[in-house]
Write a structure and sequence with these properties.
Its EC number is 2.3.1.286. This is protein acetyllysine N-acetyltransferase. Keywords: Metal-binding, NAD, Transferase, Zinc. There is one protein chain. The protein has 2 domains: about 110 residues, Rossmann fold, CATH 3.40.50; about 80 residues, SIR2/SIRT2 'Small Domain'. The chain is elongated, with a radius of gyration of 18 Å. It has 8 helices and 10 strands. Bound molecules: zinc ion.
């Protein structure tokens, strides 16, 4: 049975199925980039407010590298979820659900499509940022010279759209959790709530590459 048929079977008797997705749907193998080494640090460590403040040069160089994920295309998992046509709550920052054509996507951690200033309103799409960016020297806001970052939620910053996500979970009688470890507070509250209210929960973390 392929993934789409499997998921359809799981939600066929559900009135309001919802899916939470995490990085393992974009990177189905074990070689998750979050565990990879960037300039001697893990991505997990770098994408934090503390790291931005203490080591901006490595921070911004890493942002430039992961901005290249904007070239990624949706895979069979994104396509299957799109076919289900159900609300999506995602930890992913790559926009691949939207690119696959999914309509209702709640992004908890922002996305990598733009660079934004940490102080003023300056923002620029990643692919137009090359005129400012040179990986050999740190890049600051051209308006106010403050540090910039991809438009993502760093560790130490508040999760976005959490109340929208909660609203969906309240309505969900079935919750699919695909490719997420749900190890980040308060995202882990979502499946705890679903569990508490008796929603059916289906977790899939292994995908063929
Ligand atoms: Zn600025």
């Amino acid at each position: 049975m392929d993934l789409l048929d499997y998921l359809k079977a799981k939600i066929q008797n559900s009135n309001y199925p919802v899916v939470i997705t995490g990085p393992r749907i974009t990177f189905p193998s074990d070689t998750l980039p979050f565990k990879a080494n960037y300039f001697g640090h893990s991505l997990n460590d770098i994408l934090s407010l503390d790291f931005l403040q203490s080591n901006y040069e490595i921070f911004i160089k890493t942002c430039i590298l992961i901005g290249e994920w904007n070239k990624k295309k949706p895979n069979y998992i994104h396509e299957s979820i799109k076919e289900l046509d159900i609300p999506i709550i995602t930890e992913n920052i790559d926009m691949l659900h939207t690119i696959a054509g999914s309509k209702k996507v709640i992004q908890l951690l922002g996305n990598i499509q733009d660079f934004v200033c940490t102080k003023c309103n300056f923002s620029i799409p990643f692919f137009q940022s090359k005129k400012y960016i040179n990986i050999h020297k740190p890049f600051y806001c051209p308006e106010c010279h403050s540090p910039i970052k991809l438009n993502i939620v760093l560790k130490g910053e508040a999760i976005r759209n959490f109340h929208h996500a909660l609203n969906e979970i309240y309505k969900a009688d079935t919750l699919l959790i695909l490719g997420s470890d749900l190890d980040r507070w308060p995202i882990n509250k979502l499946n705890q709530l679903a569990n508490k209210q008796g929603s059916k929960i289906i977790i899939i973390n292994e995908f063929k590459v």
